[in-house]
Design a protein that fits this description.
With 141 residues, the protein is mainly alpha-helical. It is built from 8 helices and no strands. α2 packs across α3 (40-47), α4 (58-65) packs across α5 (69-80) and α5 crosses α6 (82-92). The radius of gyration is 17 Å and the shape is elongated. The model is unreliable at 1-7 (pLDDT under 50).
Length: 141
């Protein structure tokens, strides 16, 4: 199936910056919302791409920004530690790790067609990809 081109992928820094802007939250407030574990100057460095989000703080940051923590974790692992993320995915095998948004999409597909729908042709794949591409994601507001 067609997927988003690599050059179109949003980085963790871009995603973090967009979410802070969309939420219209100051870095001081974000720091408070995550329990002060990261100070505003560290959050600024993350926002500018000078440092990475510490993986152990993904959950609190995601909750404070009202985004899917698993999505942010997958994004960070894929960008920061791609070899480790691949190993985790290999171990998970046929059980992919799904975000809340992906689960909602699967639920909608199953509700729309409970008969195990299938993409039979390349044209079906392209049409489905176009529908999915038109959906807004967490970084689109």
């Amino acid at each position: 199936m067609a997927s988003k081109k690599k050059q179109d992928a949003v980085t963790v820094t871009e995603y973090f910056d967009a979410q802070v802007a969309l939420r219209q939250i100051t870095l001081q407030q974000l720091s408070k919302d995550i329990g002060g574990v990261l100070k505003p100057n560290m959050l600024s460095m993350i926002r500018q791409g000078h440092t990475k989000i510490p993986l152990q703080h993904i959950g609190p940051i995601a909750r404070a920004l009202c985004v899917d923590a698993l999505f942010l974790l997958k994004m960070a692992m894929n960008e920061y530690q791609p070899e480790n993320w691949k190993a985790i995915q290999d171990i998970m095998g046929s059980q992919p790790v799904l975000t809340r948004n992906e689960i909602a999409l699967l639920k909608a597909i199953r509700e729309a067609n409970p008969n195990n729908p299938k993409l039979n042709t390349e044209a079906d794949e392209k049409e489905f990809a176009a529908v999915v591409a038109a959906l807004n994601g967490d970084n689109n507001g």
